[in-house]
Structure formats: structure tokens, C-alpha cells
Amino acid sequence: MAVRCITCKGRGLCGRPVCPLLIKLEELAALPRIGNRLSGESPPEVFVGRHGYPVVRAGPLVPVGGSPEQPALDIARIISLRTRMVRSELEIHVQDAKNPGRLLESAQQIAMSSRPVETEVSFVRPPEGRMLFDGVLSPMGPGGRIEDIDVTGNPFVPRKVDQIVGDTDVRASSAVCELYSSSISVDHISRLLSVGLLGRDRRLVPTRWAITASDDIIGNAMLGRILDMPEFGGYELYSGGILGNHFEIIFMPGAYSFELIEIWHPGSAWSPEHLWIGSDREGTTGRRTYSPLAGGYYAARLPVLEHLLRMKRQAGILALREITEEYWAPLGVWVVRDAARAALESRPLRFETLEEAIRSAESRMRTKSSAWKHHSKSFSRQTTLSSFFASDSSKDPR
What we know:
This protein has about 400 residues and is of the alpha+beta class. It is about 35% helix and about 20% strand.
């Protein structure tokens, strides 16, 4: 069950109409009482679903009970806050982003803002249904069909966002990179992409796709620059994490490569019964197919590429992500991104060999390298090269 659940992450690949793991999570969340009308500050956040594509449901998230509270780094508290975020849903074709009606245009105005926006939404009937838990998305409360939307506050739109949204000649990938280079957050960029405000052929993009696409587009643009940089020398190890997601990230000599090994312990979000270990890797040519580790792969890779760019070096990267039972509910790939960034903000430890770095990493992990190293191509490659040079140097030079 653990293997299928981690691979599926609630997408229904087992054939069941409803994921039993998500049902258990929903039972822990007390859904709020909601009437036909709701007002409050949208975080700002807009959700675009994927079911029924190309006709999807889209609309802003509005909190029950007024303004949303500040986020907290406690899973139970995060779920409690996210339960209050009600999905307002407008059924719309993805191509309608080019010529939006008033309701979609209101949602787009909210998406452009970098600050919460006071919003009033009226529903055809009181919102109901399931909470939304997912491996990519943040949890969300129930949804309801929109009757009307009024943006009663003034959206705060950064100048660069206003400029790029108004430019219909720039490609979406170029727009994403230009926004990122202007210090617009990845979350804000994925929101703009999702509501169809970037690129030439504008369309709505389901939120889960837009999140991973933003991580991937930005990462690939950075990789193009990194490959022109000198290679890193020595071994450095960075450690840290948040919310039961712990990273050990090793920088190794050589040309760029990135490998992520995920270790899911029993009791963690998608591994209720057994230990599960999976891996994926890329080299200097990047990826040509979608990673089997899903959005978490791209979310973990982005902070590593950011770090390489700051170092002005390319390197081989071995990233070990250990997920413990402390991470008992899926909160979205932002957790992976922030956990990797937390690790890379630590003071690095330096070593002469990969084996020394692995031993140091093991001292902070529950899982020994004997359990995961056969999953790693980076480990075997580095070990083979080390053995070759060691044996070569031992030869009599005469």
C-alpha cells in the first residue's frame, strides 16, 4: 500500500472513488459553517482545478470569519487555518482567459496583488463538500459555485507584474523568468500563470500544474547559466528542514548533476505502513520527462540551483530528503521548497571524500546509507571514480 500511496498522492490511481488516507485527514478537520455570502481578505490566492479540463472550476479563496491569520509552522494549526479558506468556483473554459468576463477578471485582479485583497463572494448555495488535500497544493476548505464577486479593496500590484501582464508579445517562459529576476515570489508567479495572465496564448492552467511549471521553468533558466560556470571542488554538506522534512544536501566535484532520494518513514503523510525509498536524477541536459517523484522533485531542485548560482559554480548534487511521522498530513510542495532552503541556509561542513560526508549525514538521519545507497547513481559514480584515482595513484610512477 505504501508504494502505491506515495506514487499516487491522492490522485486515485488505486481505482477507489475516494482516497482512504485523505478521508482520515478530513475527519480531523472541523469544516466551518458557511452561508450564501462571504467576505474577507483573499490571501491573495486563486484556485484553478483540473477536473473536466478544458472546462474547469476557478475562483479566489476567501477565509471564513474575516482576515486570515499569519501562517504557523505547526501542521495541526496550518490545517485549521486552511480549513477556513473557502474555494469560490466559476465554471469556465481555459481559453476564456483571453477575453475574461467580469467574474474571471475579478479573480485575475486578486491574483496580481502581492498583498491580501478585501473580497466579497456570493454563492448560488452555501459552499459544501470535501476539504482538498494534495501532494502539490496547500489544503483548502469546501467549495461553492459563484453567483457574484466584488473586489472591495485595492489590489497592490507590483510595477513589474503590471508590466509583464500587459505585455502580450512575450512568451510565458520568458515572462516567468523576468518576474523571478525582479524578485517576484515563485508563489506569485505560479498564481499569475494559473489564471492565464502570462504569455502569448493565454489560458487558465490548473493550479497544481502551474506550481510545478514555475519551479521547472525558473530552474531550467538558471541551469543554462550554471553550466557555463567552473566546477566545484571538494565536498560540502548542508543540513536542515521543517515540519518533519529533513534534508542532507551534498555538493560534490564535477559537472552539474542533481539527484533526489526520498525516504518516507511509516506514519508520514503518504506512507502509513512501510518505509519507502525512491530516487530520480538528471545531468547537464536536464530532464526530458516528468519526474516520478512529482512536484517535490522540482521544488527541491530549485533552491539547489539558486545556491549554485550564488556560488557561481556547477557541481554534482546529492539531496537526501527524509520524511518522518511528524509530517503526518500533506501540505503542498512549498514545504519541500522551504525545507531545502532551510538546509542550504545552514553553515556547510567540508570533507575530503564523499564517504566522510555520508557518515556525517547519517549522524543526523534515521536511515543508514546501506538502506538507500543502492538507489543512488551519484553515490556509485563518485565511489567508482574515487576508487579508480586511488588505485591509479598507488602505482609505482617509475
